[in-house]
Amino acid sequence: MTEKPVKHTRRVRYAGTHPRKFSEKYKELDPEKYPGDVKKVKERGQTPAGMHLPICVHEICEALKLKQGMSGIDCTLGYGGHSSKILPRILPGGLLIGIDIDSTELAKTEKRIRNHGYDESMFFTRHMNFSQIRDCLDVRPEGFDFILADLGVSSMQLDTPGRGFSFKNSAPLDLRLDNSSGKTAAQLILRVTEDSLTDLLAENADEPYAELLGRAILSKKMECQTTTGLASVITGILQSKGLEPAECKPSIQRVFQALRIEVNNEFEALDQLLHSIPECLKSGGRVAILSFHSGEDRRVKKSFKGFVEQGIYSECVRRPVRPSFQEKYDNPRSSSAKLRWAVRK
Ligand SMILES: C[S@@+](CC[C@H](N)C(=O)[O-])C[C@H]1O[C@@H](n2cnc3c(N)ncnc32)[C@H](O)[C@@H]1O
């Protein structure tokens, strides 16, 4: 089979000395071709555009007690940061399945991992929701040695302006992890009632101004159809109540988080995953889950403790493991991470 020639396109030029827009960061967006430039960005404590720095790698490898020959599932493949650290520890003889709901990033990550020499017998991907993790038992009906989930959203999703996850750039308010199906956050705002919106802001993100913001957003539905539009409606109403612009930012982040959780049914998916994990682990198999806010961590804690009480898990971590001071400094996105693990009886 002859390969199609790749058409050459000129890169986007930027004004001034430094790229500002995502599309202009052509060196960061091509980490294999420009490793030196990517290294410099990481040394500044920043996440290079289009990349995701894996969090608590050492702590996760310890919790999962990885060994050669093991088989496992990375439920949230993302950029493949954790998978790339797991594979050398389980090979030769091991197998890793990487799953993700985001088909756009999944294809790119699979290609990147293949380029590092991992073939189908060691690693393959599945485009699916981790709520359906039981479907992976067709590969190992006896169960797996380990399961990892690193919850939430990846840096690539957050930093790609067109995905509509960030209020730093103007884009349609989308917030879908799988942008090939389902309703966007902009559509949700058009059909949700004021009571439901207030409830979801409070329940999904503990937003203290839930009522005020729910009312403001619905009175300016059309303005809130874009990322920056929604952010400015939130800033406007909170400033009118005497808050400084910097004090409005946490509320903007919480509103985006609450809408994202709703749009992607994140709590339902997590509950189903937690429920299915024991069936997918061998006796002595281990699970590790990294969460980023209280709504997630509460669920993980409750599930692990409940299964220990029922004698389904033999043990679970007592207090969540946190990233080191150094990691929080090097990668500020790790700051809120909490890692919990459990062992199948
Ligand atoms: C924090 S990132 C994972 C990053 C990855 N551990 C790494 O080091 O590159 C979370 C990923 O989980 C995916 N995800 C979130 N919810 C999911 C679900 N219910 N099923 C499958 N994938 C999901 C997101 O699309 C995203 O790519």
Task: Provide structural commentary.
There is one protein chain. The protein contains 13 helices and seven strands. By secondary structure, the protein is of the alpha/beta class. It has two domains: 57-155 and 266-344, Vaccinia Virus protein VP39 (Rossmann fold, 3-Layer(aba) Sandwich), CATH 3.40.50.150; 179-263, DNA polymerase, domain 1, CATH 1.10.150.170. It has a seven-stranded mixed sheet, sandwiched between helices. Helix 11 (266-280) packs parallel to helix 12 (294-309). The protein is globular. It starts with 34 loop residues before the first helix and ends with a strand. Residues 52, 54, 76, 78-82, 99-102, 105, 129-131, 150, 152-154, 177, 269 line the site of S-adenosylmethionine.
Question: What would the keywords be for this entry?
Answer:
single chain; 345 residues; alpha/beta; Rossmann fold; DNA polymerase, domain 1; 2 domains; seven-stranded mixed sheet; 13 helices; 42% helix; binds S-adenosylmethionine
What does the secondary structure layout of this molecule look like, with pairings?
Blueprint: H1 35-43, H2 57-64, E1 71-74, H3 81-90, E2 95-100, H4 103-115, E3 123-127, E4 144-150, H5 155-159, H6 185-191, H7 194-205, H8 210-219, H9 227-240, H10 245-263, H11 266-280, E5 281-291, H12 294-309, E6 313-316, H13 325-330, E7 338-344
Parallel strand pairs: 1-2, 1-4, 2-3, 4-5
Antiparallel strand pairs: 5-7, 6-7
Helix pairs in contact: 7-8, 7-10, 8-9, 9-10, 11-12
S-adenosylmethionine is lined by residues 52, 54, 76, 78-82, 99-102, 105, 129-131, 150, 152-154, 177, 269.
